[in-house]
Amino acid sequence: MKVKLFAYLRDYAGGREVEVSRCETVRQLLGELCGRFGERFEKELFDKENLSGRVIVLVNGRNILDLKGLDTELKEDDEVSLFPVVAGGR
């Protein structure tokens, strides 16, 4: 499946997009990505075993929080997007 990365997550991963196969859930996919991209990437995505509040994960344009969260099932032709949360200000 295709995983698109945005903002500084691209820097952590060394690119805008990666291909990943054989991941059945978002949790498994994110675990695979953390294994590839290291501790700094993992700290952005997770607070212990839960998804951190610093990242938004979309599967085919839908926020996983509106689906089954980390247990959202994936198919090989899905597109997953990872965005850091943007804070506004004056």
What report would you give on this structure?
- This protein is of the alpha+beta class and 90 residues long.
- It has a single domain (2-84), classed as Roll (Ubiquitin-like (UB roll)), CATH 3.10.20.
- Helices cover 28% and strands 27% of the residues.
- The chain is built from three helices and seven strands; from the N terminus they run βαβααβββββ.
- The strands form two sheets. The protein has a five-stranded mixed β-sheet.
- The longest helix has 12 residues, at 26-37.
- The model has no long low-confidence stretch (mean pLDDT 94).
- InterPro entries: Beta-grasp_dom_sf (IPR012675), MoaD_arc-typ (IPR010038), Mopterin_synth/thiamin_S_b (IPR016155), SAMP1_3 (IPR054834), Sulfur_Carrier/Prot_Modifier (IPR052045), ThiS/MoaD-like (IPR003749).
- This is Sulfur carrier protein CysO.
- Pfam families: ThiS.
Give a quick summary of the entry.
This protein is an alpha+beta fold and 90 residues long. Helices cover 28% and strands 27% of the residues.
The rounded Rg comes to: 12 Å
Question: How many extended strands?
Answer: 7
Task: Kindly name the structural category.
Answer: alpha+beta
- Describe the biggest sheet? 5 strands, mixed
Proportion of residues in β-strands: 25-35%
User: What would the average pLDDT be, to the nearest integer?
Assistant: 94
**H/E element sequence:** EHEHHEEEEE
The overall number of domains is: 1
Tell me the number of helical segments per DSSP (H or I, 4 or more residues long).
3
CATH class: Alpha Beta
